[in-house]
Design goal:
The chain is α/β, with parallel strands linked by helices and 695 residues long. The protein has 28 helices and 14 strands. Strands 8-7-9-10 form a four-stranded parallel sheet. The protein is globular, with a radius of gyration of 28 Å.
Length: 695
C-alpha cells in the first residue's frame, strides 16, 4: 500500500479507537478539516473493502472500522509495512499551484520535486493535470527546459483562482477560527491560508464594518465572506508586490479615464488599512470589489433572480408537496432560501464547476426518503440540467428545514445563530434546535463578523457552526445536523454556563430590544408596500403614428413615469431597459405579459405600474418575426441604483406572484384598484410570514 501521511493518520485513528469516533475527532488527530476527513474516507473505502473491512457510519454516534478480528489484525500489520507518501496527489498539486502563484519568477522542476519529496516525472505529471485547470481559469502554464515553470496570465485571474482554491479546500473554521490554530494545521491548509491572507481578515473586517456603517449597501452573509476573501487575497498579493499591470491583457483598467472622487470607497478602505497611495489599476480593482461592480454592465437588473428560476423552484416545491402531503408552498422561507441558493448553484453547474458536499452521506441516511423524492423532483422540473447528488443534498437540507419549521415551539433562552456556509444549513440547525431544545429562543441569525459586535445584553448564548474568535463561555460550536451528542452538549452548556450567567430577572422581561427591532422591521416593510402601491397605476400606451415598435412603447411608458417625478432621465433608463431586453427576453412564458425591470441612478424611488398596449406587439431577442412572443401588457418595475433590503424583497415577492394564474388574469383584465387589492392581500401575508420566522 502507498498512503499519504494524512491517510495513514486517519486509518490509525480508526484502528486505535475501540468504539465510534466522529469525523471531528479524526480531524483533530490528523490535523485536517472535517471536510478533508470525509473526502479521504470516500477514497479509502475501496482499499478497505479489498482488505475485508468496511466503514460503518452511524448518525449521532460517529464512524467505526468494522471487520473480523483477523481482518483487522492483518490490516494493521499491512499498514505498518506500507510506504508513506508525504502528500497525496491532490495535496501535491495544490502545493505546486501555491508555489507557482506565489513566485514572480520561474521555478525549477527539481526544486519542486525536492520540496515535495517526489521524482521529477511525478511533478511533470502533476503539472499536466494542472495545465487544464489553469486554462479554465484564464491562465497558462509555461514549461521550458533550462527556464523552469511559471504561471502566466492576468493578475486578476490569479487572484480569482486563489479565492476559488480557498473556497473549495478550506472550511469556514479554517478561515475564521482562531489564528493560533495555524500551527496545528496541515501544510496544505496552512499554505492556502497564507495565500489568502488570513492574518489580514480582522483588519479588513473592521474596515468593511466602518464602510457599511457609513452607508454602503449591506451584503448577504455569503457575498460578504466572498468579498472578505477577495479583498484579503488582493491585499496579500500587493504586499508581495504582485500588482495589476496597466494595459495587461485581461486586467481591466479604466482608472486613467476616471476622476479621483469616483474611488471614494477604495481610498477610504486603503486609508483604514494604511496602505498608502495605490496604483490607479489597484484602486479601480478595489473599487469594483467594494461596490460590487466588477462585472456590472450598463444595465443592472432590479431583481436578483429571473422568473425562469422562480418558476422551476415553485414547480419543485409543488412536486414535493404532492408527493409528501406537506404544505411546502405555505413556507415562504423555503421559497426564499431555495431561490437564493439555486441561482448561484445552477450557474456553477452550467460552468462545469465541481460541487462538494461533506455532509452528503449523513444527509442520505437521515433524510433517505426525502432525498429520493427531491432527486425525482429535480430530474422532472430541470430535465436539461445534470444535477449531482452533492447538490441534491443541499436542496434536501432546505426541505428538511421546512419539514421541521412547520411545527415550531416557543423558546425562552435568547440565542444568536451564526453560520457562514451559505447552504441553508443555518435554517436546518435552527429548526433542529427548536425541536430538541424548545426553551432556546433563536432571536437572530447573524454572520460571524456581526456576532462579536452585538451588545452582550442582547443575547444569552451564541450557537455557531464554525469556530469563532470568542471565549468558550460566549458560544458553543455545533454541526448543522445537530447529532444527539451535540444536543446533549448544548443542553449541558446551557445548564452549566448560560443559565448560571443569566441575571435573576425573568428572561421574558428582557427582550424588549428584540420586540422593538421586529416592530421597526415591520414598519420598514409596510412603508415600502404602501409607498409602492400608492404609486401603482394602470395606463394605456398611446398608439404609434406608424407601426408600433418596442422603442415607442418603452419611451411612452417612461413618459408616464417622468410625470410622477420619480425619474431624472427617461432617455438613459430607456436605453437600459432596451439593453436588458436584448440580453434576454423578459416575456413571461405562456402569457401576453412582459416584466421590464432595471435599476438606475436616474430613478429616484421604486416604481411599479402596468401598461396596456393598443395592439399586440411581437418582439424577440433577435428577430421580429411571426414566431416571436406577442405581448399586450407590460409590468414596469424600476428602482434606484442603491435600494434598501426591504424594497428589494417586496419587489422580488411581487415578481414571484407572476407565477400565480390569478395574478396574470387580474393584470390582463382588472382595473388598478382590483390589482392593488390583490397585491396588498398577498404582501400582507408575506410580511406576516416574514415576521413569524425569526431570521
Amino acid at each position: 500500500m502507498k498512503l499519504s501521511n494524512r491517510q495513514r493518520l486517519i486509518l490509525e485513528a480508526l484502528l486505535e479507537r475501540q468504539g465510534d469516533i466522529t469525523a471531528g475527532e479524526i480531524a483533530e488527530e490528523a490535523r485536517v478539516s472535517t471536510r478533508t476527513v470525509h473526502r479521504e474516507l470516500l477514497d479509502l473505502e475501496p482499499l478497505l473493502h479489498g482488505e475485508g473491512l468496511s466503514l460503518h457510519k452511524k448518525s449521532g454516534s460517529g464512524i467505526q472500522l468494522e471487520g473480523t478480528a483477523e481482518a483487522l489484525s492483518r490490516f494493521q500489520e499491512a499498514l505498518g509495512r506500507s510506504e508513506t507518501e508525504t502528500y497525496s496527489p491532490e495535496e501535491r498539486r495544490l502545493l505546486i499551484l501555491c508555489r507557482l502563484l506565489e513566485e514572480a519568477e520561474p521555478v525549477k522542476m527539481f526544486a519542486l520535486a525536492h520540496e515535495l519529496h517526489v521524482a521529477i516525472p511525478t511533478v511533470s505529471n502533476d503539472l499536466a493535470e494542472l495545465e487544464r485547470k489553469l486554462l479554465k481559469n484564464g491562465l497558462t502554464l509555461v514549461r521550458r527546459r533550462g527556464y523552469g515553470v511559471e504561471i502566466c496570465g492576468p493578475e486578476t485571474a490569479k487572484r480569482r483562482l486563489i479565492g476559488r482554491l480557498a473556497e473549495q479546500n478550506l472550511d469556514d473554521s479554517d478561515m475564521f477560527g482562531s489564528v493560533s490554530g495555524l500551527q496545528g494545521m496541515s501544510p496544505v491548509t496552512a499554505r492556502l491560508l497564507k495565500m489568502v491572507g488570513k492574518d489580514h481578515f480582522l483588519a479588513i473586517e473592521n474596515a468593511l464594518w466602518q464602510l457599511e456603517v457609513e452607508g454602503t449597501n449591506p451584503l448577504s452573509e455569503t457575498d460578504y465572506t466572498r468579498l472578505l476573501i477577495r479583498l484579503s487575497v488582493a491585499l496579500t498579493r500587493m504586499k508581495r508586490h504582485h500588482y495589476i499591470r496597466p494595459g495587461a491583457p485581461g486586467d481591466r483598467q479604466e482608472g486613467a479615464e476616471r476622476s479621483e472622487h469616483e474611488y471614494k470607497e477604495s481610498r477610504r478602505f486603503a486609508a483604514m488599512l494604511e496602505l498608502g497611495p495605490l496604483p490607479a489599476a489597484e484602486s479601480e480593482y478595489l473599487q469594483r470589489l467594494l461596490t460590487g461592480k466588477e462585472q456590472d454592465g450598463p444595465a443592472t437588473p432590479l431583481l436578483h433572480h429571473d422568473l425562469a428560476l422562480v418558476e422551476s423552484v415553485v414547480h419543485l416545491v409543488r412536486f414535493l408537496e404532492k408527493q409528501t402531503d406537506i404544505p411546502f408552498v405555505r413556507d415562504r422561507s423555503l421559497l426564499d432560501g431555495l431561490i437564493r441558493h439555486m441561482g448561484p448553484a445552477i450557474e456553477r453547474l452550467r460552468a462545469g464547476d465541481s460541487i462538494r458536499n461533506p455532509l452528503l452521506a449523513q444527509i442520505k441516511r437521515d433524510y433517505a426518503s426525502l432525498f429520493t423524492i427531491v432527486r425525482e423532483g429535480v430530474d422532472e422540473t430541470m430535465p436539461t440540467l445534470a444535477v449531482p447528488d452533492e447538490e441534491i443534498g443541499y436542496i434536501v437540507m432546505h426541505f428538511g428545514a421546512s419539514v421541521e419549521r412547520l411545527s415550531q415551539f416557543p423558546r425562552n433562552v435568547r440565542a444568536l445563530l451564526v453560520c457562514t456556509s451559505g447552504i441553508g444549513s443555518s435554517k436546518l440547525l435552527a429548526v433542529r434546535i427548536n425541536k430538541e431544545l424548545p426553551q432556546i429562543d433563536l432571536i437572530g441569525h447573524h454572520s460571524w463578523y456581526e456576532a462579536s459586535r452585538l451588545p452582550k445584553d442582547r443575547y444569552d448564548l451564541i450557537i455557531s457552526t464554525v469556530d469563532l474568535p470568542l471565549g468558550p463561555d460566549r458560544y458553543v460550536k455545533l454541526s448543522p445536523l445537530l447529532t444527539r451528542e451535540e444536543a446533549e452538549k448544548l443542553r449541558v452548556h446551557i445548564q452549566d454556563i448560560t443559565l448560571k450567567n443569566l441575571p435573576d430577572e425573568a428572561v421574558a422581561s428582557v427582550p424588549s430590544p428584540v420586540s422593538l427591532d421586529r416592530l421597526k422591521r415591520l414598519k420598514s416593510y409596510t412603508d415600502e408596500v404602501v409607498r409602492l402601491l400608492d404609486g401603482f397605476g394602470v395606463y394605456p400606451v398611446p398608439a404609434a403614428p406608424g407601426e408600433a415598435d418596442l422603442n415607442h412603447v418603452v419611451n411612452a411608458m417612461l413618459a408616464v413615469v417622468a410625470e410622477s417625478g420619480k425619474l431624472s432621465s427617461a432617455e438613459t433608463v430607456a436605453g437600459q431597459l432596451l439593453l436588458r431586453e436584448r440580453q434576454g427576453s423578459q416575456w413571461i412564458p405562456d402569457t401576453e405579459l412582459a416584466l421590464f425591470h432595471t435599476r438606475s441612478d436616474q430613478v429616484r424611488e421604486p416604481y411599479l405600474s402596468l401598461f396596456r398596449l393598443p395592439t399586440r406587439l411581437r418582439f424577440g431577442q433577435d428577430d421580429w418575426d411571426a414566431m416571436a412572443p406577442a405581448i399586450s401588457h407590460i409590468l414596469l418595475m424600476l428602482g434606484p441604483k442603491r435600494l434598501g433590503k426591504e424594497s428589494l424583497e417586496v419587489l422580488s415577492e411581487i415578481s414571484a406572484m407572476l407565477l400565480l394564474p390569478e395574478m396574470i388574469d387580474l393584470l390582463r383584465r382588472a382595473d388598478a384598484e382590483a390589482i392593488k387589492t390583490f397585491l396588498s392581500q398577498q404582501l400582507e401575508q408575506y410580511i406576516k410570514n416574514k415576521m413569524d420566522w425569526r431570521d
